[in-house]
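Suppose you are handed a protein chain with no further information: no name, no annotation, nothing but its sequence. What can you learn? This example shows the usual starting point.
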Amino acid sequence: MKDYRLIDKIKYWLDKQMSKGTVSIIRLMSLAVLSVVVFVSVLIVLFKLRDGFFSAFWDSLATIVNAWMPSSEDGQVGFILLNTLTAIIGLFFTSILIGVISSGIEEKLENLRNGNSIVLEKDHTVILGYNLGEHGLLKQLILANENRKRCIVIFTDITKSELEQDLQDNIDIPKNIEVICRHGDITNVNDLKCCSIEKARIVIVNALNDNRRIKAILAVSKLKKMHPECDALLIACVTNEHYLLPQGKIDKKNIIMLKTDDIMAKMIARTSTEPGLSIAFKELLNFEGNELYFERDDRFPGKSVLELAGFIDDATLVGIERNGKTILNPKRDVIVKEEDELLLFETSKGSYSVNEVGMKNVSDREVGVIEKSTKGHLYIFGSNILLKTIIDELPPDVEDITIFSKDADPEELAGGRYPFKIKADKRDYANRLPQIASSASHIIILADREIDKEDSDIDNILLLLKLMDIKERNGYLYNIAVELNMASSYNVSVKNDKIDYIVASDIASLVLAQMSENTKLESVFEELLSKKGNELYSKPIRQFNLSDAHDYSYGGLKQIVLSYGYTLLGYCHENEMNLNLKLEDRVELSDSDSLIVLGKE
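A reasonable first move is to predict its three-dimensional structure. Written in structure tokens, the prediction is:
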């Protein structure tokens, strides 16, 4: 076999040295220059052009560093020629050195601009993945920590300068919150090291698709293995159940994984027949307005739930944590124990007050039978992965369902033995909207997940506008639940009390933020968004035998609703949601008003 030539070996060695970066190049050049200086100095001494090696060495070094050309008076011809050659070499050396150093500084500045330096923080929150224009998650985290000093690190493949500009233009970041932006691949373990995940409090995976989310989870898990002391909680939402990790692995690795599609489908199912309920859902999920907090108070034990309804002010008792489990909507005769924690619906943690006198029990009256809602026709436009769960979670006030989609298979859906009829209409409905709308009680518009998210949202908004126009011109009463992909689409949509928007990016952000602040709420939201257990309802006042002839105290309404087995969160009056009023506030109801309650059917 033919051996490599010497010149090839030298080129290969040079290539390897050059590829090692700026420091290696400077080291190589310095060695080359020093070799030239020594060689020239030796020649000068050999030809006796200068006395002593040190003097010759210093003159040659000064010449090459300064690129100084000797004059005719500096010595003999040989000395002048040798130093002229040295000066020319020095000129090349200086030019190359300036270029290398300039390139190295520019590369370092670019790294700083991109945010590649390590984050020297601890107990911080790390967000892996970010989508420009979608600020829901960060806003919720800021609201959740409005009274605490907190550092939030955003790690994404978006350049640092671009991300910082986006945040500066769209989010008001308070002084107590520090937001640090870093650039890199969220699925690369080496890139993730700059986030100091081993010292973080929470890691939230906020990637755009399930593939990236799972890779990011695995990368973080590998990084946590390198640091056994790391106890950071890892939270992620996936859209498809296929991507859920085995339960044993989740528990072992301190991971919470939630299915956003399940949450969205259940919210659409609940709001499709009860307009306005989506506002109550969002009120429970977000950190703006009223939220859920666990509270312990020496004044609570020994009192019944009914007594506490007239005792706790500026908040609503919605549950009791007992023996590690949260009991939602406890019965009115349940007595609170010393070890219990109360789950309160309040504006901020500890914002409740106590009515020391308490309120007289106004609910000792005969409880009537709650009037059942009239069953109606539900029309669903479109079909996607949410459809099966939506139909599974529909309340009983649906008589039959028609799905307008080329992809829906009514025989497959009917396998659930539902109490209503299901049929699919695969014909084009564009010219039949007036006819369809005339018999509709409830309408759901689902997103098309086979096309671009923005295109899907625009299609849904256009269909919504047509249906609203038909409704207003004919005086129809149907309500509409619309699935949108992006918060930006919701911001430009028509707002109406009979329209419920379920926005995918918003729901994911709200749930991730809630779980990051209080993991005990996971089971609470799971029950609220399921047909099993307690759910949110928007019920007409007539179902509680309330009269619009006179007003009620809000505390009195709480007790009346408790007598029917429900917990009152607020009421909707003239399209306005009113939550957590003071006990003594007077409430004037009209026949069109509804109560927002928590309970079982």
